Amino acid sequence: MNIRDRQILQIALPSIVSNITVPLLGMIDVAIVGHMGSPVYIGAVAVGSMIFNLVYWLFGFLRMGSSGMTSQALGRRDLTEVTRILVRSVVIALGIALLLVVLQMPMKWAAFALIGPTEDVAPFASTYFNIVIWGAPASLALFSLMGWFIGMQNTRFPMFISIMQNVVNILASLTLVYGFGMKIEGVALGTVIAQYAGFIVAIALLLKYYGRLFPYYRGERLFKDISAFFHVNSDIFLRTLCLVAVNLYFTSAGARSGAVILSVNTVMMQLYLFFSYFMDGFAYAGEALGGKTYGAKNKTAFSETLRRLWMWMLIVTTVYTLLYIIGGRWIFSILTDEPQVIAASDEYLWWTWLVPAAGSVAFIWDGIFIGITATRGMLVSSFVSALCFFGLYLLTEPLWGNHGLWLAMIVYLAMRGVLQTIWYRLRIINAI
How far apart, in whole angstroms, are the C-alpha atoms of residue 421 and residue 291? Predict the structure, then answer.
């Protein structure tokens, strides 16, 4: 194994482990409330988790923008800018979090109007929201810290923090629910405690292992280059809106086809998520190594990194494609035991065979584009691909129903990769 492959795996593997642990934070809450004796608690956590997942997804640019800018500054050996990016990102994250806390009531009203929880679920969902919103400062600041760690070529700390958060969440929620007799309040407080525990541990790791960098910090230019920060991050924010729009519409379109088709699509999307957890690890490697070699203006190292990333993409894509062809139905049956859903899946499951090949290219380009802060290419490709998704579905749905929906999703995933490849060849390759 050459040195570039080792560098890629050193960043990718901890990121993959971290990605796998993240969904557990929501699953733990659902598992605990599932034993409280009433389905309204499950519904309340489902509604509350949906709101915060959407909010935090939209503000994921705090992590992505920080990692790309940090890796480039590190490649230039500009330690002053490395520290400045960290402080700037955390300050902005805390500012956004403060705004969310201040505007929590209109935000909750808008979210409930959009989701439409039932009358019996709404009060408990409101209680959950009212508590978890106070975790926003810790969560958003942690986004900035995680991105900075990745930019510093360190994905072990994010992995450790993610695992630790899940452990704290389990212990805190179980203690509050079963030890102190709380209901939905205990689950919500457990989540907030886990969020602040993650933030505190991140700060501790930062001070212990990177404290030597802070003498390089100069605060006089902290917000001088703020336009560049928001240019990069506004592109990522708008790109994320495109992703959210496609995913929300995909879910709602499936729901219009009935509960069984909705369940089939939901479980099939889990297979896409399993694939994405692995590909995201290599995207993080693209962010860190691509950004660092780009910042150092080392074209040879950048090109080699890109070539090795494509190799790992082909390996992961091939493995997952074979896995879904050979064992897709078995995996599906593990995720649900509903006979109707399993029977209905036979007609659609073959679409999952196409998911790895369709989606893999965009993951690598996302990582590279974030690393070199070429975020406009991400935005344009996502926007055009989203238009293709909506247009194709509207054309095919009357004839093919749910098959038309999956065709639109596969084309959407593939188009993102195709358009980013074109953007790279036209706008970026000659600038490196």
Answer: 17
**Inter-axis angle of helices 39-58 and 226-256, to 10 degrees?**
140
Boundaries of every domain in the chain: 1-224, 225-432
Residue identified by tokens 């992961």 is 316
Here the tokens at position 162 are 């993610």
- Each residue's pLDDT, cut to its tens digit, for the chain (432 residues) gives 788 899 999 999 998 888 877 666 556 666 777 667 666 777 777 778 878 888 888 888 888 889 999 999 999 999 999 999 999 999 999 999 999 999 999 999 998 887 777 788 889 889 999 999 999 999 999 999 999 999 999 999 999 999 899 889 989 999 999 999 898 899 999 999 999 999 999 999 999 999 999 898 877 666 666 666 777 778 888 999 999 899 888 888 887 888 788 888 878 888 888 899 899 999 999 999 999 999 999 999 999 999 999 999 999 999 999 999 999 888 888 877 778 888 888 899 999 999 999 999 999 999 999 999 999 999 999 999 999 999 999 999 999 999 999 999 999 999 999 999 999 999 888 776
DSSP conformation class of 427: I
Q: Between the CA of residue 81 and those of 64, 97, 218, 221, what are the distances in Å?
A: 17, 24, 8, 9
d(CA 371, CA 364): 11
In sequence order, the 6+-apart residues with CB closer than 8 A to the CB of 234 are 61
Give the containing element (helix H, strand E) for 187. Answer: helix 184-210
| Residue linked to tokens 């956004």 | 96
Task: Provide φ and ψ at 290, rounded to 5°.
Answer: -60, -45
Q: Which of the 8 DSSP states describes residue 223?
A: T
Query: What does pTM read for this prediction?
Result: 0.89
Of 367, 380, 420, 416, nearest to 67 by C-alpha is 367
Which residues, in sequence order, are CB contacts of 408 under 8 Å at separation 6+? 388, 389, 390, 392, 393, 396
Closest-CA residue to 69 (of 372, 378, 374): 372
Give per-residue burial for 59-97: e unless 16+ CB within 10 Å, then b.
bbbbbbbbbbbbbbbbbeeebebbbbbbebbbebbbebb
